[in-house]
């Protein structure tokens, strides 16, 4: 799933770079460009970085580095990963309902303006997708904290925890 999201995000990145090289030559629509920029950011963060790069470390690599290999692999059934497909489905629903939704680098300000607001289902789908993705990252952070704080060897003081594990604790 994460590899597929990485390929989709990379494809969207190529479209963004092509459009930036010659504005309005490829897409011919600012709304579509904003949709692609928004989708690229959300797909790469919530569906590639969180589950694969960070979630994978939190599930199996950090316990291995904390010298508790028996706890590394049963922790892979993390609920934070399983809510991501529904978030991605809602993101795609927001693209295809009504005129689509895209806010570029700012997702919420266009929703608050009467002139730029989306009163229909497209904005609702996007907001719900963002909230589900945010809940997923909060659950993953709690998983990292519990892994970092509770799954270390009893004789292992916090000062002797490997630096990589401490960086996971700080970033979560």
Automatic annotation (TrEMBL):
UniProt cofactor(s): heme
A UniProt-annotated Pfam family: COX1
Domain Cytochrome oxidase subunit I profile: 1-172
Reactions catalysed according to its record: 4 Fe(II)-[cytochrome c] + O2 + 8 H(+)(in) = 4 Fe(III)-[cytochrome c] + 2 H2O + 4 H(+)(out)
EC number: 7.1.1.9
Residues spanning the membrane: 41-67, 79-105, 125-145
Keywords attached to this entry: Copper, Electron transport, Heme, Iron, Membrane, Metal-binding, Mitochondrion, Mitochondrion inner membrane, Oxidoreductase, Respiratory chain, Transmembrane, Transmembrane helix, Transport
One annotated GO molecular function: cytochrome-c oxidase activity
Pathway(s): Energy metabolism; oxidative phosphorylation
Protein family per UniProt: Belongs to the heme-copper respiratory oxidase family.
Job description of the protein: Component of the cytochrome c oxidase, the last enzyme in the mitochondrial electron transport chain which drives oxidative phosphorylation. The respiratory chain contains 3 multisubunit complexes succinate dehydrogenase (complex II, CII), ubiquinol-cytochrome c oxidoreductase (cytochrome b-c1 complex, complex III, CIII) and cytochrome c oxidase (complex IV, CIV), that cooperate to transfer electrons derived from NADH and succinate to molecular oxygen, creating an electrochemical gradient over the inner membrane that drives transmembrane transport and the ATP synthase.
Protein name, per record: Cytochrome c oxidase subunit 1
């Amino acid at each position: 799933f994460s590899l597929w999201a990485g390929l989709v995000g990379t494809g969207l990145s190529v479209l963004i770079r092509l459009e930036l090289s010659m504005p309005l030559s490829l897409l011919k629509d600012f709304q579509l460009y904003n949709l692609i920029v928004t989708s690229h950011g959300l797909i790469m963060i919530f569906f590639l970085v969180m589950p694969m790069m960070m979630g994978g470390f939190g599930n199996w690599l950090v316990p291995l580095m904390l010298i508790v290999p028996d706890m590394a692999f049963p922790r892979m059934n993390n609920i934070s990963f399983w809510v991501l497909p529904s978030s991605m489905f809602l993101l795609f629903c927001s693209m295809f309902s009504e005129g689509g939704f895209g806010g570029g680098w700012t997702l919420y300000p266009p929703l608050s303006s009467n002139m730029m607001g989306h009163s229909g289902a497209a904005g609702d789908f996007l907001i719900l997708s963002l909230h589900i993705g945010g809940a997923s990252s909060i659950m993953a952070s709690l998983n990292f904290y519990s892994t970092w704080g509770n799954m270390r060897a009893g004789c292992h003081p916090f000062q002797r925890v490997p630096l990589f594990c401490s960086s996971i604790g700080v970033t979560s």
